[in-house]
Amino acid sequence: MKKILPLVLLATLTLASCAKIPAKRTIEIDHKTQWVDSVYNSMSLKEKVGQLFMVSAYSNRSESHTDSIQQLINDYHIGGLIFFQGGPMRQAKQTNHYQSISKVPLFIGVDGEWGLNMRLDSTSRYPYNMTLGAISNNDIVKKIGEQIGKDCNRMGIHINFAPVVDINTNSKNPVIGVRSFGEDKVNVTEKAWAFTDGMQSTGVLACAKHFPGHGDTDTDSHKTLPTVSFSKERINEIELYPYKELFKKGIAGVMVAHLNVPSLESQEGLPSSLSYKIVSELLKDQLNYDGLIFTDALNMKGAADYGEPGDIDLAAFKAGNDVLLFTVDAPKAILKIMEAHDQESISEARLAHSVKKILGAKFDAGLNNYAPIKMEGLVNDLNQDINVELYAAAIENAITLIKNENQMLPLKTSAKDTIAFLKLGDASADQFLTELKSRAHVIDISSLSAKLTLEKLSEYDKIFISHHRENSRITSAISDEDRHLIESISKNHKTILTVFASQYSLKETDLKDVESVLVAYENSEVANRITADIIFGAADAKGTLPASITNDFSVNTGIKTSK
What we know:
By secondary structure, the protein is of the alpha/beta class. It has helices at 4-18, 31-41, 45-50, 63-76, 88-101, 129-132, 138-154, 185-200, 232-239, 241-249, 276-286, 301-304, 311-319, 330-342, 348-364, 378-381, 385-398, 430-437, 450-456, 480-492, 525-535, and strands at 53-57, 80-83, 107-110, 159-160, 205-211, 253-256, 292-295, 324-325, 400-404, 419-425, 442-444, 462-468, 494-500, 516-519.
């Protein structure tokens, strides 16, 4: 036994010496949290509160406007700017200057729902959302979102306040309309995510709006406080549907509208943007949204009429919003929130929650490694062939044939056929007429009076009636005079009606006697050319209605044709 014990001990020691010593565990550094905490801990109270504000900026205004922005950066340490009108070179120069004087890099935003051209001259535009809603191929929408993201990156823009995800179930909506992808909640959601996915893949943050849903209102929140009178169940089923889906997928931001929603907020007349029940209890707690929450512009009457400047901002922050957008009076609002913090009606934890979210978004946008915008080649970079190609692809896939009696289209003509052309609306039809004339023997009778037009038509086999609207955003019905002409002519003549405007323009027109009806949505050169191609079979009709015109022409109506 005396001999065995040392041997066992020796064997044990030998085995222990042969065992592998674990390597030191690599500790991953959370660079984002480290940067956010470092910046936050270096700030004064005034600097922290300043981060909550994004104020409006313009590159087409006087030097006094620039001076006022500089003062807000230097004296009130505002967190960001949302640019409106101007030009790319001017805005880029201003952005570089403003960034150079800001202690913490500024968060730069834009309302670019259909691209930078919504706000900036000399830049590319894309179709309105309603036009994109007519497209079946969501990859096109994703590519547009991606290109808009690249354009934003080139302009030093970190967040685009898009997409609009309102379900436009009211054709009389004066403020959403063609800004919506349509009235089908699934289609709206699919298009909104395709756009978001494309844009956020470039590092530019997206922001869904206008929560909890501005699609079925008949007043404008810029001018008053619209009421949404639906039940809580209806809102949950329809209006909130796209938000719930986009939140799951990871959209960076959401914008809260100025709406009166009695089923969600019992306090009479309290705007949704100032409602704790809607912003904190519904959006944050029930829907579990933890991204950035923006107010809609606080200078809009829907919010501004509720109280005094500063008080509105304080109420919006207490409701649960992170970023206070387009305030009426930033200095007054910042001091109000500082005072509330000092009086402990706003806790340090509440302030830190929002400010750290904002700093985190700045990190995500690359502002921890800020670099100024390169000026050389800027305008050319924002107007590349890809911009033109994507716009054309969208229009080609959106144009919608909603009626085609006896398969009149594609149109087959002979040398003997005589076709009349009647232009309606307030915009030029020259390009469309040129396109038609290049394909058939077409005579323009647009200069005749209504009476002579009806008399002259007996000489023609067919008639093209084409309605061109200067502003394609307008969703009102076409004039009574134009409507009567369409209805009168189509009773006795084979008629092809084309509408270079919103489909809503036809909502009061009786189309029962019209053989073929095409909706082009927009009055651009591309839309005029491709519509002519579809009529004569050089292109296919592919689109479907994103929103109903009437019961006879409801959402998702669309007749396909082949070349």
